Amino acid sequence: MVAALVVASAVLSAWWVVREARAAMELQVRIGQELAASERAAALGDAIRTASGRLRVQATGPAVPRVFREHDPAVLLASVENARSGAAVSAAAIADANGVLLAESGDMPVRPATDRPLFRSSAKGDAAFMTLRVRVHDETGKLVGWIYQELSLRQLSPQFIQPFPKFAGATSLIARDGTIVMTTLNVRLPRVEARELAAMVASGSAASGSYDSSALHSRRIAAVHPVEGTDLMVLVSADAKAASEPAAALVGRVVVLFLITVAIIGTLIAVAIVLLGSIRRQLIAAREMAAKLAQTDPLTGVGNRRAFDDTVSGLMEQDDQIGLVVIDLDDLKLLNDTCGHAAGDDALRRSAAAIASAVRPNDLVSRVGGDEFVILLTQGGLNRADDLAAQVRVAVGEIDIPGFGPLSVSTGVDVCPGRDLVFGLNRADEMLYQAKRKRSGRGGAGFGVSTPVVQTTSLIPDR
Question: Who contacts 304 (Cβ-Cβ below 8 Å, separation ≥6)?
Answer without folding.
Answer: 39, 42, 43, 294, 295, 296, 297, 366, 367, 368
